[in-house]
Amino acid sequence: MRIEAIRVRRFTYSTRTSRDSDGHAHPGPERIVTNACLTITADDGTEGHIIAPPATVSEPILDAFIRPALVGADPMRTAQLWHRLYKAQRGSGALLTDQVLAAVEMALWDMVGRAAGQPVWKLLGGYRDRILAYGSTMCGDDLEGGLATPEDYGRFAEWLVRERGYKAVKLHTWMPPIPGAPNVQMDYTACAAVREAVGPDIPLMLDPNHWYSRADSLWLGQKLEELGFLWMEECMEEASLSSYKWLSGNLPRLNILGPETMTGKYWTRAEWAAGGACDMLRTGVWDVGGIGPALKCAHIAEGFGMSCEVHGTGAGNLAVCAAIPNTTYYERGLLHPFLDYDAPPAYLRRIDDEMDAEGFVHLRDTPGLGQDIDHDYIDAHLAA
Ligand code: LLH
Ligand code: MG
Fold it and tell me: Is the dihedral of CA 176, 141, 259, 340 positive or negative?
């Protein structure tokens, strides 16, 4: 089996999610946006697909790096092909990002699964066939009745737990450019409102994502210890390993989770684990360059007796969660009271991570990565 062609289809669809000037998602007026589907085709007709941001799978990047490395190669050798792309990163003038590696590697895994007639999560070891999700909120906003006040967070968390079945909740609080953000006191008040609303037995987490100082992070962390939170992530600049070592050492009753957005794939995660900078390690297919490197992060964590919590949604992250024993939850979101997360976007027949009333996301038995892409929709809505 050899790779014959790599193509990308850019297409339009309608969404009610918009992004603020710092890139955070919020509800907004309905608008048309562009997305992309990367498809790798083998000489026997087997295809592998992944939905990816259009800039990640642009034609110039495919032409310069991906087609030369992959066309003619055996698609089953995902590790070898990933390594080839990884080695090409150094000389790519920063064009060949970890996100590009992730998109290509996941399309390869989708193809491997389809060729084998097996779901990818089983080919990776299939440790579990379902996982509890935590409801991961959008960042705070200034929308009336949205996520504008601590009471809004409390009301929404109560709905997530009592009506939708989530067994754990994570808050993303207010971030710039929202007026007044960041503010540790506001963050704490929202966390306290959520704890009050859901009771003492629901695990809660906080992602303040604010590049707070050590002093602010310690103050907030001590408050979260009192509220019995499970973890806090990305409260400071992740490039400062020393700051996270210091914070972890000063918060005996709160897990510090990281690094999430830090570059350096599994090498950075190894430094964090070995350096005592976190209590729980972070990985994510789009953060570390794909499924293979995400699994390596999980294995590093396992060797240190730590859990490895997977960042973000989607079929690739779900497959990693199912493949490893040392993870607690699948991150489902981002959620907001004005948006229906369970309604699929037009280019999917089903969302990747349907969740039952008990809060479990079940892995699919269909061959490949498990994305149910509507190719007819994509073909009918190609962007210029
Ligand atoms: O910044 C945001 O909008 C969110 O924090 C987002 O990055 C989210 O993916 C995250 O950090 N989850 O843990
Ligand atoms: Mg996060």
Answer: negative
Confidence at 210, pLDDT banded by 50, 70, 90: confident
207 lines ligand 1 (CB under 6 A): yes
Tokens of 298: 């999980």
Interval 135-161 mean pLDDT = 98
The residue whose C-alpha atom lies closest to atom 1 belonging to ligand 1 is: 24
Closest Cα to atom 9 of ligand 1: 312
Distances, alpha carbon 373 to alpha carbons 51, 285, 319, 339, 352, in Å: 8, 19, 17, 21, 9
Q: What is the pLDDT, as a whole number, of residue 384?
A: 82
d(CA 314, CA 295): 16
Q: Could you report the per-residue pLDDT of 319-367, keeping only the tens digit for each?
A: 999 999 999 999 999 999 999 999 999 999 999 999 999 999 999 999 9
Sign of CA dihedral 288, 293, 294, 296: negative
Element (H, E) at 243: helix 241-250
The Cα–Cα gap between 170 and 334 comes to 10
